[in-house]
Amino acid sequence: MRHDLVVIGGGPAGYAAALYGASAGLDVGLVEENLIGGTCLHVGCIPAKELLETASVLRAVKGASEFGVDAGGAEPTVDLAVSQERKRGVIDNLFKGLGSLLSGRGVTVYDGTGRLGPDHTVTVEHGEGSDQVGTSTLQAGHVVLATGSSPRSIAGFEVDGDLVVTSDELLSITEVPARVVVVGGGVIGCEFASMLSDLGSEVTVLEALPEILVGCDADVAKAVRRSFRRRGISVHTGVSVSGHEPSGGSTVVRFGDDQVEVDLVVMAVGRSPRGDAAGLVGTRVEVDERGFISVNDRLLTGEPGVYAVGDVVATPQLAHVAFAEGMFVVRDLLGESPLPLDAATVPWCIYTHPEVAFAGLTEVAAREAGYDVVVSSHRFVGNGRAMIVGETDGLVKVVAEAGLDGRAGRILGVHMVGPWVTEQLGQGYLAVNWEATVDDVAAHIQPHPTLSELFGETVLSLTGRSLHG
Ligand code: NAD
């Protein structure tokens, strides 16, 4: 079978390349050995955010009396089995939708493990349970490798799905564990810590680095940490985790000179790229020592006409970056010369409570890059809508380049922590990526009363005048 484009891996990166390629008129084959939708849809973004929403609803019901709403008197509880059922429904709907999109655009989906050999030949070994049998051999004009990543663990913590779990297993729990250690205070670790704490677990986070949420602006990470402390989440940074000793149904986790007894250990120490998952024998595709496929700034591997996208390349492991890369390579192979993606300006959204969202340079990164910067931060505590919704924790911080006169000019970074900031980042992202100046943005009206007024207020104050701030 011959296709203009064969994509190996049907997660966000792969299915984006397939859908976008098909909408550009290419004949596309998409090979997937598990489920179309990949980590994001089945064991990542979607189920995690769905369970975080359960946690948020529980929190809202617990706080209902503050609004004069009688939620029935008794302490609200959560039935995770029901929540899991709801999560299943959301995933199933999206999964069906994705299947329809692919078939509607004429993408040929191959069930099985795809292996790239010489001359753009892809062999698909169909697994058990597939309608397709044996092996298919595909010939491709271009190939996109999108084989993704898998959760990793560390020495001394064997993942058994019972006492020690990764995100894969945690997202299917049907009972709230009483005491939990989360190893790793990165994005996954903090989201799970936040969710489990809301659901009623006693949570300890163990992070090797000096601060949680590396990559976030220091003021934002500090705000999350303060909020976690207030909620009773115990965060230990700069600690080395040396192992654990199970006994009965629990286990004792050792870190530094300390230890903690828990019922569950959640490993959140990063994800390993699956660079070798598509064979690649007889090709010039190179996989580095960490398992990433080596690519240039056009996401081309060493083999002409073969691209790699998504978690399997060393760019931010985010579904929306995967979408963007999938679309980028289609435009590139069509000769449209798209601008290479800039990892430093992609949007980040972290669904902890409080939420985090940012795009562009942190204050420290901007100074390290040699910019003279002017910075302004405003807190949600003075924002009307934040008071109305009862979520005044957090801030907006804008980092701008200083002109020769010392006035704030181009916006280099927008950093938010607080209520619904994942839904508020849009204009900050545009400002950074449009290379807008403080004056450009300040000229626009912010609707009132909104949480996003705080972004407008913060930018306005950088013009040298302000309204409420
Ligand atoms: P991560 O790299 O963001 O964080 C892992 C953390 O674990 C780091 O802070 C690291 O210092 C720490 N760590 C590593 N080894 C340790 C040890 N032995 N003891 C203590 N701490 C240790 O990785 P993650 O949180 O597992 O997430 C994986 C990927 O998935 C990331 O790239 C992340 O961006 C992405 N992701 C993003 C979102 C989102 O954007 N909302 C959600 C989930 C996952």
List keywords for this structure.
single chain; 469 residues; alpha/beta; FAD/NAD(P)-binding domain; Enolase-like, domain 1; 3 domains; 7-stranded mixed β-sheet; 5-stranded parallel β-sheet; binds nicotinamide-adenine-dinucleotide
What is the topology?
Layout: E1 2-8, H1 12-23, E2 28-32, H2 38-43, H3 45-62, H4 80-104, E3 108-111, E4 113-116, E5 121-125, E6 135-145, E7 149-151, E8 164-165, H5 167-170, E9 179-183, H6 187-199, E10 202-207, H7 218-230, E11 234-237, E12 241-247, E13 250-255, E14 258-262, E15 264-267, E16 271-273, E17 306-308, H8 319-333, E18 348-350, E19 355-360, H9 363-368, E20 373-379, H10 384-389, E21 395-402, E22 408-418, H11 425-433, H12 438-442, H13 453-462
Parallel strand pairs: 1-2, 1-6, 2-3, 6-17, 8-15, 9-10, 9-15, 10-11
Antiparallel strand pairs: 4-5, 5-6, 7-16, 12-13, 13-14, 18-19, 19-22, 20-21, 21-22
The chain binds nicotinamide-adenine-dinucleotide (NAD).
Residues 154, 183-189, 191, 206-209, 214, 241, 268-271, 317-318, 348-351 line the site of nicotinamide-adenine-dinucleotide.
